[in-house]
Amino acid sequence: MSRWRKTLIAAGVGMAASAALVMTPAEAESFNLVVNYSCTGGIAGNSPVTIKARVNIPTVVEVGSAMNLSWTLEYTNTRRFLSPDYFEAGALTSIVANMKLDGAWNGVLEAHGTQEQAALQPNVRLETPAGLSSSAHLTEEGVIQLRPQGMTVDFLPPAGVATINNDELNRIKYQGPWVHDPATPVEYGDHLRDVHTSPQVDSTARIDFLGTGFEYIGRRMPGVSKVRVRVDDDTTGLVDPTKTESGQPTNAINGNVSLWKRVDLPYGKHTVIIRSLDNAPIHLDAFKVHTGAMIEPPTLHRANCVVTSAPDVVEITVKGHDAPTSPPPTTTGPTDNPTTTPPTTVPPTGTNSPTTSPSTSNSPSPSSQYTHPAIVIVGPGGTSTTTPSSSASATPTVTKYVRPQVVKTPKGGVNTGEAPDPPMDSGAYTLIAGGSAMIMSSAAGGLILWRRRAAHAGGVK
Question: In angstroms, rounded to a whole number, what is the distance separating the alpha carbons of residues 39 and 153?
Fold first, then answer.
């Protein structure tokens, strides 16, 4: 390898190391709050569906900015949400998770997520949104208390009309000597050119469906039986297929005709039964199921989820734009219960610069640990408070907690259970940038010196 290539490699390594040093302070400024849910009812079925949510909460929040919470969901058992019936493509599952906020922002912050479904059959697994999101615009300084609350999982069926052909035996149940004719004459106009026929009185065909209405599709023609149409407990429906809609006898055979229609039913589970009343043929071409458009998902399919494990409350301090930032606590050793050393503040030089010195009111218990200076997790057990005093401007109060119930997953660093250090101040960036410049200038100087020596020795090759 030539000296030229060695010099370039050395310079590249130096610049890469400098870039790594400069990027180190830009670690994650958030942590994950873990909340466990148990969901029952509706599309959850007979046994609970359990879900774990990880709520990503920012650690740096300022007045005038938006606090964005992002949720990721995962199942913690083998059970899933299931389709309640047959549906065309386009159904939606939606999840709404609630977070109660008090203090500088009051109200319930809702996180929403929606997932569209393909065509469905009963008890087929429903796809759920992989994540949720919510946002709150912060207008005041102070402390916000976050409390995880319940979650709802809804199913919204697609609006429209679905046709169930007479040969779909998984949907239509026949009683009596019904016969399937798979190739009816084209001139009859039957749907899909097939029909089910029974010549005997009291022959029945039944369909159960979820929707808001239906149509009985058959034939108008001479010499056929009258038909009783029963909808749930209503037996008043009566059809005479030997007559036209105006009540006149017909001499033609017309298939694929809507003989009875009702679309004013409340959304839900319904049963339709057609019955022949004479010893004459009865024809069934198809049923059409109607589902009206709904603004809100029906509560019939709603699964309600309750919190089974989470911290009692999470506190976030909202700072002003010019509020001083407390230096991060230091820890020693990659242990599960790290030892915490309180931070010290070096007074700045100058006659007009304020000085700040923290004073501790209580000694933390051995099981306590610091979180990010702007975040406090309050769980079961006692708390101790560190209140800094200031001669010019106040710094936020930092509360430590016992037995934290939050999982913090910073990007990088030793897994000590603590939140990542806040960003370094501008002085530290200046020092790092200066060191990086020195490394690159040293590499460049070595290259120039080597070229000059080579020139004295007979030229650069």
Answer: 8
List of residues 6+ apart from 9 with CB closer than 8 A: none
Q: What angle do CA 447, 453, 459 make, to 5 degrees?
A: 100
CA 384 from centre of chain:
36
Could you give the CA distance from residue 275 to residue 85 in angstroms, rounded to a whole number? Answer: 25
Q: Nearest to residue 61, comparing CAs of 312, 309, 314, 311?
A: 314
Q: Are 279 and 200 in contact (CB under 8 A)?
A: yes
Reported as a pLDDT band with limits 50, 70 and 90, residue 373 is very low
Residue 42's SS3 state is helix
- Beta strands (DSSP E) in 322-382 are 330-332, 339-341, 356-360, 375-378
- Residue 379's contacts (CB-CB under 8 Å, 6 or more residues apart) are 311, 312, 401, 402, 403, 404, 405
Among residues 267, 301, 298, 268, which one has the least CA distance to residue 40? 301
On the question of pLDDT at 42 being above 90, the answer is: yes
Contact 91, 293 (CB under 8 A): no
Q: Give the integer Cα–Cα distance in Å for 95 and 151.
A: 7
Residue among 102, 108, 159, 100 nearest 296 (CA):
159
Say how far apart CA 442 and CA 11 lie, in whole Å. Answer: 9
Q: What is the C-alpha separation between 115 and 296, in angstroms, rounded?
A: 15
- Smallest CA-to-CA distance from 327 within 377, 278, 396 is with 396
Per residue, what are the HEC states of 307-328?
EEECCCEEEEEEECCCCCCCCC
pLDDT tens digit sequence for 294-346? 999 999 999 999 999 988 888 888 877 654 544 443 333 333 333 344 444 44
Distance CA 122, CA 85 (A): 4
Angle in degrees, CA 198, 204, 208, rounded to 5: 130
Coil, helix or strand at residue 440? helix
Residues contacting 352, CB < 8 A, separation 6+: none
Residue 162 · residue 217 · CB < 8 Å:
no
